[in-house]
């Protein structure tokens, strides 16, 4: 444990956890892959914990991603077969979630680095049981003592830990690594923090067995409370207050026409999406009037610029030229092809101005290359730049982190597609099945005989799907 602290795998200060909670202690065990001796020692400690507990199993599986190298070390040294669980299925090849050789009925031991609520362990349990495996035990290096053990026990999983956070504090205090005041602060945090509970499975409406796949659903209002990003917090609040998860993509070439649509449709949307570079009469007067309309009807403005260049170039595109997007657009978006520099460039101005950025994780066009490793990289970049990145343009939920917003284009009430490769899903499919937060509708409203009445239909359909999802304690999947 002293070596973990020595290599900054255990840190003290003020940290925002994935749940949005502020914590005085943080574990970053990803760093241990750079220290082979420490990796071997951690792996040995975990193996000894399984031996002390007398656990019997056929194979082992590390929770992605930090625990994967730890499980690999144990597998190689102790000659124990190992499986790999993907965070998302490949969209090519075998499309498996579990990789490796196993048989139905095999017992699998789960290996994890840190347990807080136990959610990550349970997600891995679900993937394993979906392919017919049995999971009874999980071994973890550090237990944060915030309800994870109890949550796992409810699901029939025994947690075996090498060290709990209380014991860790005693060790570090005894070695003079931290003072008693720091230890007391962490203990007070543990005593006052609400345990993160995993909801109990409830029978389906037909009275059958409990659902095999279940996730806790937070409301827009609850997610707003968790958000530290000012634009995300504001958008979730608008969605709650206006009872709307509808974004209107108003792709017209006339500024006057755009402003009229914004005024007519504004009462029913949470977000207005623009492409100002197609306007034939863009002016600063247009910007002033658009901002006034947004304030009048309480919606945010999203300029769909799709920045995709090196940092210095996108910074100039954001702050300069005819459009000066940073001055009026609450939200912009970016491709990740150039690497994180595109985010860093935009954030130099975006963060001080309290703007938000969406990363393009997936696209609705047929044959899009924004899949697989590209999408995974987008999520990683978002997590590493969450002070500016507030979510994703996507075709389904990319992360369970409730602070990130998922917005999906390609939505129409009837579904289908067009001759240029655009593919459509219904509001219910996007919200209920694919778990997106905001539905983006363009031609479905623009080309309607009565755009206002149609916008109301989309607003109702999208929010009804959200309410149906959040009101259900039981989510069944086929």
UniProtKB/TrEMBL annotation:
Domain of life: Eukaryota
EC number(s) recorded for this UniProt protein: 2.4.2.10, 4.1.1.23
Catalysed reaction equations from the record: orotidine 5'-phosphate + diphosphate = orotate + 5-phospho-alpha-D-ribose 1-diphosphate; orotidine 5'-phosphate + H(+) = UMP + CO2
Recorded GO MF terms: orotate phosphoribosyltransferase activity; orotidine-5'-phosphate decarboxylase activity
Entry keyword set: Decarboxylase, Glycosyltransferase, Lyase, Multifunctional enzyme, Pyrimidine biosynthesis, Transferase
Summary of the function given for this chain in its UniProt record: Bifunctional enzyme catalyzing the last two steps of de novo pyrimidine biosynthesis, orotate phosphoribosyltransferase (OPRT), which converts orotate to orotidine-5'-monophosphate (OMP), and orotidine-5'-monophosphate decarboxylase (ODC), the terminal enzymatic reaction that decarboxylates OMP to uridine monophosphate (UMP).
InterPro entries: Aldolase_TIM (IPR013785), OMPdecase (IPR014732), OMPdecase_AS (IPR018089), OMPdeCOase_dom (IPR001754), OPRT (IPR023031), Or_phspho_trans_dom (IPR004467), PRTase-like (IPR029057), PRTase_dom (IPR000836)
Gene Ontology terms: biological process: 'de novo' pyrimidine nucleobase biosynthetic process; 'de novo' UMP biosynthetic process
PANTHER family tied to this protein: OROTATE PHOSPHORIBOSYLTRANSFERASE (PTHR19278), URIDINE 5'-MONOPHOSPHATE SYNTHASE (PTHR19278:SF9)
Active site: 304, 306, 309
Amino acids binding substrate: 251, 273, 364, 422, 442-443
Protein name: Uridine 5'-monophosphate synthase
HAMAP family: PyrE
Subunit description: Homodimer; dimerization is required for enzymatic activity.
Pathway: Pyrimidine metabolism; UMP biosynthesis via de novo pathway; UMP from orotate: step 1/2; Pyrimidine metabolism; UMP biosynthesis via de novo pathway; UMP from orotate: step 2/2
Classification via Pfam families: OMPdecase, Pribosyltran
Family according to the record: In the N-terminal section; belongs to the purine/pyrimidine phosphoribosyltransferase family.
Domain Orotidine 5'-phosphate decarboxylase positions: 245-458
Source organism of the structure: Ridgeia piscesae (Tubeworm)
